[in-house]
Amino acid sequence: MSRVGKMPIKLPSGVTIDVTDTMLSVNGPKGSLTQFTIPGIAVAIDNGIVNISRDNDLNKLPAKHGLMRALVNNMVTGVSQGYSRQLELNGVGYRVALTDNNTLKFNLGFSHDVIFKLPAGITAQVAQNIITISGIDKQLVGQVAANIRKLKKPEPYKGKGIKYVGERIIRKSGKSGKDK
């Protein structure tokens, strides 16, 4: 039995799950998410507790059992609490501004401004040099944060660029080798 897959999921108040043959939808106070169901994996709801089970132990079904449980748990958490990632800009003159039409405008030391359009369902807040990306879909929030970080990855010599808050950048000494 999958250790992750056999753990039950407790539904918070205000969250409902609708299961059909091929789709699963989770509705909550922050919105609604849908996910296809994996063949051979059954989702059962009983008194506010969601149990995920599988038909047999053949091929890759045990791994998919844990995957389906993790996806459902992420959906339940997303529609009840939401997810957020924080990014930090480091560098002289590096700035970000949030425009009115859900677009981020970056000044990253290039000869031009970099415009980043946020997808539907994702919101951003900017405070000084910290960008907070939030939404109900964990995968989409993480992907948007990764795409923003990819605009100007932190470099190892001075640490300039966009990094996650709390991320540790390994620094190099440079050409002169002062750290030796």
What would your notes on this structure say?
This protein is an alpha+beta fold and 180 residues long. The protein is 19% helix and 38% strand. The chain has helices at residues 61-80, 138-151, and strands at 9-10, 16-19, 23-28, 31-36, 41-46, 49-54, 83-90, 95-99, 103-107, 114-117, 122-127, 130-135, 161-164. The strands form four sheets. It has a four-stranded antiparallel sheet with strand order 11-12-7-13, with helices on one face. A three-stranded antiparallel sheet has the order 1-6-5. The chain has a three-stranded antiparallel sheet with strand order 2-3-4, covered by helices on one side. The protein is elongated, with a radius of gyration of 21 Å. It starts with 8 loop residues before the first strand and ends in a 16-residue tail after the last strand. The mean pLDDT is 92.
List its traits:
180 residues, alpha+beta, Outer Surface Protein A, domain 3, 2 domains, 3-stranded antiparallel sheet, 19% helix
